[in-house]
Design brief:
By secondary structure, the protein is of the alpha+beta class. The protein has five helices and seven strands; from the N terminus they run ααβββββαββαα.
Length: 205
């Protein structure tokens, strides 16, 4: 029997078969690539943590190797996971933090000295902040403003470290925000202050 390739039935069957084949191929490729994707995500997270410890410029396997050397332990505290690090013989703690910017999520890592009173380094990233404005929180010049800053003032139960509008920082615990990105800067302020506040019991141990 001759198949009518111009008929609606043929077109429907053909389209259905093609959709099934393409869906199968996409599922197969996704499944095959998942281990590699997971490994890349894990490596990127390690690199972010290392960056918060002011260890930068590493790529590929060097990230995994350095991470294994530096991170000595992972603790589960009330605020969340805490990474214990050894940097040049000194103990540092890395605390993950999350927040909300103008257009989407913010996240980062704040490393602190062994005395739990001062910031050692930071790393911040964003989901979809405006390029050239809020997206600049990912740049090292912004993150390095936090280095050496105190977390508290007189009250050890209340985190004082925060971000203020560019040019308005007065206290040692205030960091200048990004020019023209007030809402993103406010988001970072909340992420830093509220994020660290969640670890207040750990910070006061």
């Amino acid at each position: 029997m001759k198949i009518n390739t111009n008929g609606n039935v043929y077109t429907f069957v053909y389209a259905t078969v093609m959709v099934v084949i393409v869906a199968f191929l996409l599922a197969f490729v996704a499944s095959a690539l998942k281990p590699m994707q997971d490994a890349n995500v894990a490596r990127d997270t390690k690199n972010q943590i290392l960056t918060s410890l002011n260890i930068t410029g590493l790529k590929g396997d060097a990230i995994d190797k350095k991470y294994a050397e530096v991170i000595t332990e992972e603790l589960q505290e009330q605020g969340g996971k805490v990474f214990v690090a050894n940097v040049d013989g000194a103990t540092k703690y890395v605390l993950p933090v999350k927040g909300r910017g103008l257009w989407g999520g913010l996240w980062g890592y704040i490393s602190i000295d062994e005395d739990k009173q001062h910031v050692f380094g930071t790393y911040f990233d964003h989901e979809s902040e405006t390029a050239g404005l809020g997206a600049r929180i990912k740049e090292r010049w912004f993150q390095e403003q936090f280095n050496g800053k105190p977390i508290f003032t007189d009250n050890p139960q209340q985190v004082a470290l925060t971000v203020v509008k560019k040019g308005q920082s007065k206290a040692e615990t205030e960091i200048d925000g990004v020019t023209g990105a007030t809402l993103t800067s406010n988001g970072v302020a909340g992420m830093v202050t509220d994020g660290l506040q969640q670890y207040i019991e750990f910070l006061n141990k």
